[in-house]
């Protein structure tokens, strides 16, 4: 009997040791390590004029170049990064790298050139954001590059006095403000207008349903009408087909973004293509 007890204890002990060695490290620790290693890199996706199809800017999308797992998509790590506050140093890396690369290639970019950056809710409650934007603008030191801060609808919901002052300051620096994923949250535009918006980005879920679901089309039409009244420009996200692009243009959407024009590619590649005047690769 004792021998059996000792054997079972030993088995459990070895299993415990194995787990200690091989347990998955928490995502938080992995993110901290990756920040130190500068594994977060900017990808760029073009935004075009809906009528002329000319390039008007890009959206910067974060990617994680993990040494073992390869390229990691943001939906797998952004939520944890936002909840833990690590999104702030991560955004710092992205803004620094983006400014550095834009500076090298600014001569080959159209004037004006809009650069959209996704901003987490934590950032909107912190003075760090205006410092970040200040150094970005200093670094690119070019009036034609316009920094567009993309806030998703849910986080712009509560506009505090602090946020309002912060955004006033940012507008003073020349930044523009976009509401991302518009139509998926519950905020009222009256509330959002307190921060003097420039753009609404129509969420891809509505674009996907063009020609399929009339409710999405009604929502797009109503959004366009409302945006025009408030003098806001509209960007449609997730445009994948010519039919969607044509519909959106006819409805009065100003700018388009999606796989129809280009998937997100490394910012450096995008800028090099621009410099060489090479067509943007199309595909998923
Ligand atoms: P988002 O800001 O709404 O970005 C648009 C997403 O749609 C991107 O996904 C983009 O790759 C994808 N997309 C673009 N065109 C198409 C299309 O034609 N079809 C389809 N199906 N998808 C398209 P991605 O890059 O995976 O990013 C997902 C989300 O992660 C972003 O949504 C944004 O909320 C967040 N994110 C990305 N980068 C950052 C960042 O630097 N900071 C923060 N806080 N969030 C970020
Ligand atoms: Mg965005
Ligand atoms: Mg979006
Ligand atoms: Mg989104």
From TrEMBL:
Residues 24-278 form the EAL domain. The chain crosses the membrane at residues 1-21. Keywords: c-di-GMP, Cell membrane, Hydrolase, Membrane, Transmembrane, Transmembrane helix. It catalyses: 3',3'-c-di-GMP + H2O = 5'-phosphoguanylyl(3'->5')guanosine + H(+). Its EC number is 3.1.4.52. It is found in: Cell membrane. One of its GO terms (cellular component) is plasma membrane. It is a multi-pass membrane protein. Its main location: membrane. One of its GO terms (molecular function) is cyclic-guanylate-specific phosphodiesterase activity. This is cyclic-guanylate-specific phosphodiesterase. It comes from Photobacterium phosphoreum. The chain holds residues 230 to 513 of 513 of the full protein.
